[in-house]
Amino acid sequence: MINAVVTGAGGRMGVAIINAIAANDGIKLSGALEREGSPFLGKDAGEVAATGKMGVRITDNPDKAIKKADVIIDFSTPDATMRVLESAAPLGVSMVIGTTGFSHHQREHIKEVARKTSIVMAPNMSIGVNLLLKLVSDAARILGPDYDIEIIEAHHRHKKDAPSGTALRIAEVIAESVGRDLSKVAVYERNGIIGERRPEEIGIQTVRAGDIVGDHTVMFGGIGERIEIVHKASSRATFAMGAVKAALWLSDKPDGLFDMQDVLGFKALD
Predict the structure, then answer these.
(1) What is the pLDDT of residue 269?
(2) pLDDT by residue (tens digit) across 194-204?
(3) Do 171 and 229 fall within a single domain?
(4) CATH of the domain at 205
(5) What is the pLDDT, as a whole number, of residue 123?
(6) According to the model, what pLDDT value does residue 265 have?
(7) I want to staple 22 with a disulfide (CB 3.0 to 4.6 A). Which of 51, 68, 182, 249 is the partner?
(8) Is-catalytic flag, 159?
(9) In terms of domains, do 228 and 240 share one?
(10) How many domains does the chain have?
(11) Do 24 and 120 fall into the same domain?
């Protein structure tokens, strides 16, 4: 049995993760974090998540929350993640990071901290999306430069970063597979008279509407045919279950930075 802390415990993902923990016999909620001023502070995390009392009060103090923790499951904001990381690293507490929107400097700092503790960091924890990453990598490599590559992502109206971390990771994987520098070929917006599409472009387009949990489509457009690989999430439960799986996987791992491809064993298939 491992002890887990959930950040953003009153949010949509936090609630889903607490429910996933409650349904798993191998992990127990030992702490719950929320932002300063949150209306959920002081409340029982289980009651907030509608799982029944769990005996864990939501706090805004990271040091207090992680006292008994083996792992922290973090779906919050980049700045909040960095604050929790500073409390966790000296204690050797592992982290599962699903937060997106980090700056380059923040990502580099996370790599440094991973020398002191074990971290799984992935923009999407679902098994399906991580399988999609492998499929699009293979497809890009096989289809080659004759097929135009476009990525379309759609999320709910409340999502703060764009494109999604998952869409960016898809683009990175594809660029690596075809030997392109994503910083030079990514196209995030098309408007007006822009001329013909450059063959090396990787388009990444964003939709924000309603309560869409997360849709990602990767299009390989050739002459006379089009191949589309699509993943649609209908519930945050899939991300929460993946995050709990990652937390359990970390329990016997050495210090280092891992991703969901490691957790799911997909890298061994390459």
Answers:
(1) 54
(2) 999 999 999 99
(3) yes
(4) 3.30.360.10
(5) 87
(6) 86
(7) 51
(8) yes
(9) no
(10) 2
(11) yes
Q: What is the pLDDT of residue 82?
A: 95
> Among the options 28, 43, 109, 159, which is catalytic?
159
What does the pLDDT read at residue 266?
78
**7 & 91 share domain:** yes
Identify the domain containing residue 18 by its residue range: 2-125+236-269
The H helix count followed by the E strand count for the chain is: 10, 12
Do 119 and 244 sit in the same domain of this protein?
Answer: yes
Q: Domain check: are 171 and 138 in the same one?
A: yes
Determine the Cα–Cα distance for residues 171 and 203; give it in Å rounded to an integer: 9
- Determine if the pTM surpasses 0.85: no
What type of residue sits at position 78?
P
**Residue segments in the chain with a per-residue pLDDT below the cut of 50:** none
| One domain for residues 207 and 86 | no
Same domain, 115 and 6: yes
Q: Among 155, 216, 231, 245, which one carries the catalytic annotation?
A: 155
104 in catalytic set: no
Using the 8-state DSSP alphabet, how is residue 198 labeled?
P
